[in-house]
Each structure stands twice: as C-alpha cells, then as structure tokens.
Amino acid sequence: MRRAAATLPRLLARPIVFPRPRLISLPPLSPRSLPCLRLGSSLSLSSSPPPPPVDTVAPLPTSWDPPRPSSVSHAYADLEPYLGCSMPGKRLKVAVLLSGGVDSSVALRLLHAAGHDITAFYLKIWFQEDFENFWSECPWDEDLKYATIVCDQVDVQFEVVHLTDEYWKNVVSHIINEYRSGRTPNPDVLCNTRVKFGAFLEAIGSRGFDYVASGHYAHVIHSSSKDGLSILKLSKDMVPFCNSCSVLVQGTNLIDVVVKDQTYFLSHLSQSQLKKLLFPLGCITKEEVRSIASLMDLPNKDRKDSQGICFLGKVKFSEFVAKHIGEMEGIMLEAETGDYLGKHRGFWFYTIGQRQGLRLPGGPWYVVEKDVQNNVLFVSRNYFSLDKRRRIFRVGSLNWFSGSSPINVEQLQCKVRHGPGFYECSITSGSGISDEESLVVHLSEDDQGLAAGQFAAFYCNKVCVGSGVILDSWDEKCFPICSKALEISRMEDKSKLGKPVRIINLETSKTTICRSEH
C-alpha cells in the first residue's frame, strides 16, 4: 500500500514570495495581547494590540502564568567572574536572541551586567498554509511569556521577528528534499547558519548593532585587528571533559557523558557571521548558568531545556516527517540472509544505525543500509560486530573559518555528531562531485553511525576550524548485503514475497552470511 503526501509536489511546484522579515516591538504590549496564530494569520504592525483574528487558538489558562519575581537582584558584583565572554568594559550595542529558555535569559542578564545597550529579539515562525497546524497547543505562547518577564526585570526592549518564509525556504524545504533523497540533514546546523545568524542578521543589518548574542555554549575570540580572523573555541562546559591538553577522544565510556558545548552546531557559519557573534555562556558551565538564574531570580530558572527540532519545540521528529513528506510502505530485509522480515513507513523515517521504530522481535535490530530507489531497508542484528564498522568517509560543502583548509591535516580531531566524543583524524583530497571540492576523512577509530547529510566538524587544539557535509562512507569493512537481499530489493512486485519470516531469537539462530555484492 502506498500513501505519499500529495501536498509536497504541489507546494514545490508553485513560486513562493519571500518578503523582508517583519519586526514588531513588544514593550507596549502585554504578553496576553499576542494571540497564538494559526496558519495564514499575521500580527499588525501597529503599536497597539491587534484585534484577535477569527482563526485563533484559545489562550492558555491564567493559572499557567510563569512566576514573576518579587524583586530583582542588582548584585552584579557577584557576576563579575562570569563575564569573561561578555566583553565587559566596553559599551556595545548588542542584539540578543531570546528564546524564553534559561540559557538565552542568562546570556541577556550577563550582557546587561557588563554594561551593554541591549535589545532582545524573539524569532517567530510557523508552517505554511498548505499544512495543518499539528501542535496541540500554542508552541510560542509560553516562550513569549517567559521572555517578556525576563526583559521586564531589567527594562530591556523586546521585539518579535517574523521569519516564516525565510525558515521555510532555507531550512524546511531543504530538510524535506534531503530526507526524500535518503540523506539525514541536521536542522540545528541549518537553523544557525541560515536563519538565526543568516536571515536575522540581514533583517537587523541597518540598525547599527555591534554584535548579535545568543545562549549558545561556545567561545568566540575576536581579533583586535579589523581584518583579523575570529576564532570559534570549545566552551568551558566542554573543557572539564577534555583529555590531557588536547581534546576528549571518542570512547565507549562517553555514552552517559552530557555536555552543552555547541560548537558542532555552529561549525558551518562563515567568517563574516562569526565576526558578528557574541556567546556570553562560552566561559561558564551549565551548572553555573542555573546558579546565575537562581541568583537573578529568573522566572524560568527551573525550566527544562528544549529537546526538539530547531524551532519546532515539542514536535516529534516522526510527526514532522509524516506531516511534511507522508508515508510510503516498504519492506525490511535481513542484510545477511535476504529474509523478508516486515514492513516500514518509508525510508526517510530511518537513518543508518537506527534501532528505534523498527518493531521487530528478537532484536535489537539496526538499519545498516537503505535502497532509496526501491524503498527498502536492510537491517541486521550484527551492526556492532568488529568487521562491519566504518572509519572512512567523504565530505563536501566544505567551510573553513580561515578561508582555506588546515595546514596540519594529520593532527585534527573530528566530531560526527553533537556530544562529548571526538575522533583523531586525518584528511586527504577526494574526488569531487559536479566539480565540488571534497575531502576523504580517515578516523582513528570506527564509527557505526556515519550518515550521508550529517555534518562533520573539525578541530585543532580546542579550536573549531570548519566543517563539511558527509557525502558517503566506505572502506573494506563496509556492511555486506548478500546477493539474495539485493535481488529481492529490485523486485517490482514485492507482494509475491508473501508473509514475513518468523524471526528466531539471536541466541538460538545461526545466521549464514551471504556473499557481499557491495
């Protein structure tokens, strides 16, 4: 049975107009005067509260309101040890991206304590009218309430920037196309590069801000020379986990380590973008951020960190994919035997190394390969066997903060995902695709989750030097797919397969490895 979303081709076929982002000043407005809008509605540009649109979501109950502090602490002397990344001693005009979370709120208060002239901005987006609003509650109403109180505490101007069309054009459309092509993009990297520090920087470019700040955990060092390069360093939150004087190398003992360093998500910014950025949290840890939030009596001091897709908050990944791409039923085959094991919702829901959502007994099962053309998943219970790991991959769309590749290509470290783990690596020239420059990356250790479309960030002595997009991965130990599985994958009428085979528990089965056709 085939159920593909009919809305996508129709949407991509018609031209989309992208107006300049609209800024709306909030100080005259109460948090309750900003209704949560459904698709197709908009806010008035006047300074007075607009009449509620016909198609609105009812406001949250009054009992929900975040707590307002009884008093505001002005003991900024206590914050001096934490101002190292806030450029104290200078009177700067800074635009602060405020999400309503504790990180960006503390960043704002640190900049205020450093004596800067700051204006807070909330980036607001929603989906195009072609798709229904599948949030069960207003996704930004809670954020705006917290953000407004944080700004009211220190009398900071607060504005909302509408970047719906820019977000759709530069992030959502790209993500959809990547998933439909069988690749696994990183929404957070795209959001930072194209929206937060792309479209937003353009929107406020004429307002004379010296820097744009956010609650990211990263440390930017700016040159004293106008023509000098800015450097992106690991945050203090990452430093305690560094190994000796270098960086922490990937290892199995890191599975439970949690760090907030976000240089990986910022690794694809341009040098011109980096020069405009300020990250006050780069010199402090997450634990210290919570302590500062309590000291300042911030209303969101106990609020949990968001874990969803960039800008999508509580929306689950599977919901996002289902609503924007649809479902198309396909089959799952065991990579070693070619046995027909069951069906799946569409190859775009799965990435290499994934085990969740397969719903197969006798596991754990892992996705080891995808046949995008025939919508087939190859799965295995032997994904972590030593002879099937990968340590070589190719990257393209290269971005180097210095403008050129590093000199010491044999002394680099690499991140292939957000987290505490690094690999020692070396890079060599690779064959390009469509005349695009590419490099071959050789990791010091094996990795089981290399996925095309993800980013690989490169580091040298705790400094992020750039990144690239993973194009593919291969070596002599890539996962073997047997000839029977490949033959079944190419069958036009897969209904002839009948019912899935009965899966035997791994402990009692003796799997025969078929000859690899890779």
UniProtKB/TrEMBL annotation:
| Catalytic reactions on record | 5-taurinomethyluridine(34) in tRNA + S-sulfanyl-L-cysteinyl-[protein] + AH2 + ATP = 5-taurinomethyl-2-thiouridine(34) in tRNA + L-cysteinyl-[protein] + A + AMP + diphosphate + H(+)
Q: What is its EC number?
A: 2.8.1.14
Say yes or no: keyword Zinc present: no
Give positions of region: Disordered. Answer: 43-66
Cite the tRNA-specific 2-thiouridylase MnmA-like C-terminal domain residue spans from the record. 391-470
Which UniProt keywords are given for this protein, alphabetically ordered? ATP-binding, Disulfide bond, Nucleotide-binding, RNA-binding, Transferase, tRNA processing, tRNA-binding
User: GO MF terms on file?
Assistant: ATP binding; tRNA binding; tRNA-5-taurinomethyluridine 2-sulfurtransferase
Which Pfam families does the record associate with it?
tRNA_Me_trans, tRNA_Me_trans_C, tRNA_Me_trans_M
Class of the enzyme per the UniProt entry, highest EC level: transferase
Give the source's domain of life in one word.
Eukaryota
Gene Ontology biological-process entries: tRNA processing
Please list the residue ranges annotated as the tRNA-specific 2-thiouridylase MnmA-like central domain.
319-381
Outline what the protein does.
Catalyzes the 2-thiolation of uridine at the wobble position (U34) of mitochondrial tRNA(Lys), tRNA(Glu) and tRNA(Gln). Required for the formation of 5-taurinomethyl-2-thiouridine (tm5s2U) of mitochondrial tRNA(Lys), tRNA(Glu), and tRNA(Gln) at the wobble position. ATP is required to activate the C2 atom of the wobble base.
Q: Which PANTHER family match?
A: PTHR43052, TRNA-5-TAURINOMETHYLURIDINE 2-SULFURTRANSFERASE
The entry sums up its family as follows: Belongs to the MnmA/TRMU family.
**What is the protein name for this chain?**
tRNA-5-taurinomethyluridine 2-sulfurtransferase
Species of origin reads Zingiber officinale (Ginger)
